[in-house]
Amino acid sequence: MSENNVIESVKIKKDLILYGAYDRYNYGDNLMPIIYQLYLEKYFPNILDDYEVKYCAIGKSDLSRFECYPTSKIHDFLESSPDDSVLVVVGGEVLCATNLTLLLHMQNSRFSHSILKVARNFLRSYLNLVTNKFYGTPWEFPYIPPKTAFKNRVKLAFNTVGGGLSGLSTERSVEVLDRLNSADYISVRDKRTEMQLQEKVPTKLYPDSVFLISELITFEFLDSRVNVNLKKITDNSYFCFQASPHKVGEDIDEVVANLTEISKQRKEKIVLLPIGYASGHDDRHYLTRIEEKLPRNTLNLSNLNVWEIMYVIKKANLFIGTSLHGVITAMAFGIPHFGLNPNIDKVDSFLKDWSIFPFNKSFNLGEIVTESTKILSIYEQQLYANSVKLSDMVKENNQNIVKLCQ
User: Fold this and answer.
1) Which of 14, 91, 175, 377 has the fewest CB atoms within 10 Å, measured from its CB?
2) How many CB atoms neighbour CB 76 within 10 A?
3) Element (H, E) at 104
4) H or E element in which residue 114 lies
């Protein structure tokens, strides 16, 4: 065979770039692209003959210790991605996160996060320059990439994203809308986001892509990725509590008193589960403070990988929290769930759009004391049926994106 024929026989794959906030450890953000790839492997394996899946974020990272895939920098694909590659922004509150805001969530300590947060109010222009040089993208609002940033022709899709355009200047709004309107496909995860884009950008409304865990992730799969000691811990009856101190909306002593009452009424152990690990979320520090004030039937878990977090929620009798993907995980597995704090629009809006009564809105923790002591097992079949319905909708949405590769 001639050298030319050998070269011709080597098939050059296009890139299928899964792009999002995957360069910091935050359960939901890191889980979304993993689930999307598992979906492709199960339902459209032939796509992988023509496309190579690439994990991409603003910065390069390796979070393999948490069972997450390493990421390459988005900047690395601007010149190298072949024609007809597909860039999919997979989920998250990405509309319209700025470079500087995202840098805040990349800090390694609460101290550096706090310093940057204060400095942002006085040195915004300088910090923007530094951010753009060392961390950010060449364009503002990094998860809304302009197609023109790529050397070759790419297709652009947004998969069940959240957020909005409020607070943008007229000039910025026009710029962002131009980028969004150039996209080949956009789906949003709640009506709150849909309303912000209504009549400005063509969108489709679907539930969050993570709902497919109930179909793609078997108990055997989870069990094989969970620490033996964690399995022993979760053999006992418990409910799961998660909260970010910036979102809980109540004094810590009120939280402790209410959790104690829920534990007493339900006769269950309290498992404190940090989900938001990224700088600025501070779940771990807050739940540690709660653990110090609570009685002995409390367990504070931390440094769990994505599958262990999922396992703890799946095995719980109830999930209470401020984390959207904590709630979504409970919903997907048919676990009773209460969103904490009605003022957290991201969670409250999602529950109103996709959950069932009485779980279809967020509550204050005092209200959850009353709600959680009711017999919740009567909703088991409805929770399961809703999970199946939402999973089918996610598959439909994912298939719409796959069509861009065909």
Assistant:
1) 377
2) 12
3) helix 99-104
4) helix 110-122
Angle between helices 306-315 and 324-332 (to 10 degrees): 60
Quickly count: other Cβ atoms within 10 Å of residue 40's Cβ: 21
* 118 burial level (CB within 10 Å; 0-12, 13-18, 19+): exposed
CA distance 172 to 351: 31
Gap between the Cα atoms of 251 and 245, Å rounded: 9
In the DSSP assignment, the letter for residue 225 is: T
Helices (H) and strands (E) in the chain, counts: 19, 14
- For 105-149, the pLDDT digits (tens) are 444 545 444 444 444 444 455 455 555 555 568 888 899 999 999
Residue 147: other Cβ atoms inside 10 A: 14
Burial of 232 (0-12, 13-18, 19+ CB in 10 A): exposed
Paired sense of beta strands 85-90 and 154-163, if any = parallel
Across the range 6-23, mean pLDDT stands at 81
Largest pairwise CA distance in the chain: 78
What pLDDT, on a 0 to 100 scale, did the predictor assign at position 128? Answer: 53
Cβ atoms of 93 and 346 closer than 8 Å: yes
Helix (H) or strand (E) holding 239: strand 238-241
Assess contact for 56 and 75: CB atoms under 8 A: no
Q: Read off the pTM.
A: 0.90
* Cα gap 85→157, rounded to integer Å: 11
